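During the reporting period the student researcher (J.K.) took over the structure-prediction task from the postdoctoral fellow and processed the backlog of single-chain submissions. One of the processed entries is reproduced below for the supervisory committee.
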Amino acid sequence: MPSIRLGASDKAPAEYRKDAAARLGDGYRNVWLGVTAENREWFDRRWKHLQNIPAVIKFISYEPAIGPLRLPKCGPYPDWLISGGESGGGARPLNPQWIRDIIEECRRRGVMLFHKQWGAYRNNPLVVEGGMSLAEAARADSFGRGGGLIDGELVREFPLRRQSVNRGRA
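J.K. obtained the following C-alpha cells:
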C-alpha cells in the first residue's frame, strides 16, 4: 500500500482531521499518527483532535519534554508515548521526575512508552540526582543523546497493532 503524507504539522492536529477525512476515509491498517506534546497544556490541546482520527496506532511525542505531562483520568489514551529531552546549545532542562511520573501513568493505563534520551547529560538523573560528573554519566549511560537509562532501566516499548481502525475512541 502506498504511503500517505498528511499535510498538517504534528503541532496542528486540528488540520489532520480535515486532511485525514479526505485522504484516509475510514482509516488504513498501516497508519500510525502522532502529535507533539511538550507538556500537559499541549497534550490537552492536541490529543482531543488526534483521538478521533482513524489510525491503527495513535501516539504522543513528549519531546522535547519541557514540563510535566499527565494523561486524562478516563480514556481514550494514546497507544504509545515517546519521551525525550531537548538537545542542542539552548536546550531547556528536563526534570527526571517528569519522566518517572509519565512512565508510571503509562504503565497504569496500558500505554506503551519509549524513552528515547535525556537530551543532555546535565538532565540525566545520574548527574542531577546521583552526583556523577558529565563524563562519568556518559560512560555509565550511552543510550541516546544525554543517555536514556531511567533508574538503571532502558524503557523502550512498542505498541501492538489494533485489528480494526475506528473513528473515535482508541
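The committee noted the following: Strands lie at 32-36, 57-62, 80-84, 112-117.
J.K. will present the remaining backlog at the next meeting.
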